[in-house]
Amino acid sequence: MKNLLFSLLAFVALVTLPLQAQQPKREGGTPEEMAKRQTERMKKSLELTDQQSVKVSEINLKFIKKQAEVRKDAGEDRTAMREAMVKIRKERQAELKGAMSDAQYQKMLEQEKEMMQNKGQGRGQRSQGQGKK
Questions:
Q1: Is 133 within the bounds of a domain?
Q2: Residues 67 and 85 sit within 8 Å (Cβ to Cβ)
Q3: Which regions of the chain are under pLDDT 50?
Q4: Measured over all CA atoms, what is the biggest interatomic distance in the chain, rounded to whole angstroms?
Q5: Are 86 and 9 in contact (CB under 8 A)?
Q6: Considering the domain boundaries, does residue 119 fall inside one?
Q7: Burial level of 64, CB count in 10 A (0-12/13-18/19+)?
Q8: Containing structural domain, residue 25
Q9: pLDDT by residue (tens digit) across 71-93?
Q10: Which end of the chain, N or C, is less packed with Cβ atoms under 10 Å?
Q11: Residue 116 is assigned to a structural domain of this protein
Q12: What is the model's pTM?
């Protein structure tokens, strides 16, 4: 259960933080723009209906704002931030589950798991001194 929660937290970080890092001009850096991009990706990959997309967009925006607040308030306390993000992630997933079919929700979980596995490979290289420092 802890692994799942940590994976979910890491997925949120993977979705929001790299988007900002990939955009040197900070284009689309507002919570609204990030939620829009995230929703568009989800709509395409999960084949969401227009009605589902509206609900998913609201959920994404709500939780992106919560995450930003946690990052702002956490300061240097990464443990507290991680714990708060796990809680936020769990809440987000519960709301998303209600906005999607079971098949769409399961597919989303599989995509998140795959992203975490891909991210983990990069961390392994760093720990061996092969990645950026």
A1: no
A2: yes
A3: 23-27, 125-133
A4: 47
A5: yes
A6: no
A7: buried
A8: 2-110
A9: 888 888 889 899 999 899 899 99
A10: C
A11: no
A12: 0.67
Looking at the chain, the whole-number percentage of residues with pLDDT higher than 70 is 71
Nearest to 111 by CA among 19, 8, 35, 22: 8
20-27: Cβ within 8 A, 24+ apart = none
- pLDDT at residue 76 in the model: 83
Give the chain's domain count.
1
Q: CB–CB of 65/31 below 8 Å?
A: yes
In a domain, 37, yes or no: yes
Other C-beta atoms within 10 Å of 112: how many?
20
pLDDT of 74: 81
What percentage of the chain's residues is helix, strand, coil (to nearest 5)?
80, 0, 20
**Which residue matches tokens 């970080």?**
13
